[in-house]
Amino acid sequence: MSGRSVAVLGAADRFKSWRRRRTTKAGHALTRAIAHIQSAQSLVGDPPIVDARRFAFAAALEAEWRTIRDEALEIMKFRTAIPLFEEVSTDQKSISRTNVWRTFFLFGFGEPVVGSCRRAPKTAALLSAIPNLQTAFLSILEPGSHIPPHRGLTKGLLTCHLGLIVPSDRDQCRIRIDDRIHHWEEGRLFIFDDTRQHEVWNMTDEMRVVLLFHVDRPMRPLGRALHRMFLTLVKLSAYGSEPRARIGQLEDRFEAAVRRSQAMLENADRR
């Protein structure tokens, strides 16, 4: 490749980086501008942690949590092939600096990740029944991990965690939301507003695994309209389009790793 070609590629990369920074900055400004409207429009108030019993899907998920966990365990047989969060979204590098936070995406922007859903069909069916589901993935936090303080993108979404595998030392595995400390429980769902500053620790020698998903915050018509507008802009921006493309690529990488592992096992059995 000529020096001129390298220079052109370098300039293109710098432009993409500049455009991404500008888009992210504009997105944050927009979310701040509409957040107070969404708070006023919210039908579940604006607390840091929302009562999961206000959502009909909570009971169904909690009743089937062992089924979800069993499918997650099958996927985690190939844990090292599960992508890191920053591989899916480069915007997460600031909060996932080391190989500690793995994410196996099942839904993105309301659409199923087909190959991944085939590996967890019962989980996918349960998620498909949730109204206004936006994203869903297995969130795997390795031992000795710390996710520093950060905030989510929009108050129009609520973040849901269903505990699947929780270390026994509760005090060393926790999440802080504003000034409140919460501990996961296996088989229990909790819901929170991730635009509040939150921070996560797993300082145990065990994994923490939750089914993490986002649903639309129940709001009055104006709040819902603003939320739909915002999601449309996100999907059209690099913030939305690039992770969608990466999810597909990483899904292919995971399937290839599974095939290699299975082939190695089959060859070993023949010997």
Describe the structure in your own words.
This protein has 271 residues and is of the alpha+beta class. The chain has one domain: B-lactam Antibiotic, Isopenicillin N Synthase, Chain (Jelly Rolls, Sandwich), CATH 2.60.120.330. The chain has helices at residues 3-41, 57-63, 65-75, 85-88, 114-119, 121-128, 221-236, 238-270, and strands spanning 49-50, 101-108, 111-112, 133-141, 145-150, 157-165, 173-177, 180-182, 189-192, 198-202, 208-216. The protein has a 7-stranded antiparallel β-sheet with strand order 1-9-6-11-4-2-3. Strand 2 and strand 3 form a beta hairpin. Helix 1 runs antiparallel to helix 7 (221-236). The protein is globular and about 65 Å long. The model has no long low-confidence stretch (mean pLDDT 88).
